[in-house]
From TrEMBL:
Keyword Methyltransferase annotated: yes
Name of the protein described by the UniProt record: Methyltransferase
Domain Methyltransferase type residue range list: 33-127
Alphabetically ordered keywords of this record: Methyltransferase, Transferase
Annotated metabolic or biological route of this protein: Lipid metabolism; Phospholipid metabolism
GO biological process, one term: methylation
Amino acid sequence: MSKFGVGGAHPGGIDLTKEILKTEEINKTSRILDVGCGTGQTAAYLAEQYGAKVTGMDINPIMVEKAKNRMRKYQLPVEIIQGSIEKFPVKDGNFDFIISESVLSFVNKPTALKEIFRLLKSGGRFIANELTTNKRLSPTSEEEVKQFYGLDSVLMEKDWITLLEQTDFKNIKIRMQKQSMLQYNTNSEFQYSEYIEPELYAVMHEHFNIIVKYEDVLGYRIFSCTK
Ligand SMILES: C[S@@+](CC[C@H](N)C(=O)[O-])C[C@H]1O[C@@H](n2cnc3c(N)ncnc32)[C@H](O)[C@@H]1O
């Protein structure tokens, strides 16, 4: 994905991001962290639209470079940091909002959620758009999905809620139940790398095959909660 430089690499894309953010009380004094910011499309939008103090972080160096290029190109004062949300060396209570869009599935979820909780101010908000299964996958299907995406688990809505509760988040709300991954992103953006290995096209193709194959089962949810 980093070689293709997919912007808005989450279900619903930037259009859904804008809609969700409208319901939050963001202003120019807000400090916001975009976890797993990818090429920085959401982080750039937050800085442009709200004048907020935005930090984007991502583990992938190619994503980090592309996000930095975006901020330079549009002269946006967004800080982009390479790191892992499983251990992100920034002081406690630094952010009013933390957003993660299709990131938590790829990490150790309890560890990352604890880190997000630590980084939020008291009363701060966490908003997530994450892969969620609409029903339990059969063991073979679950293995296929986990193997392909490199996930340690594929969660149902109630599993996410349990994890958020265990992390001590309050006021947990869920929007957009039973959304299909096929409504993925109608407004895609690409920042291609100069060289893309031919096998990566096959991987992208396989990704779309899996989404079609599990259309009824694989979905996503928008979670919001408060520290
Ligand atoms: C599906 S992409 C989503 C990117 C971006 N949020 C978006 O919507 O366009 C997942 C992103 O999570 C990043 N990521 C994976 N593991 C991570 C970790 N431990 N810490 C931070 N970012 C991570 C990947 O590098 C990738 O950019």
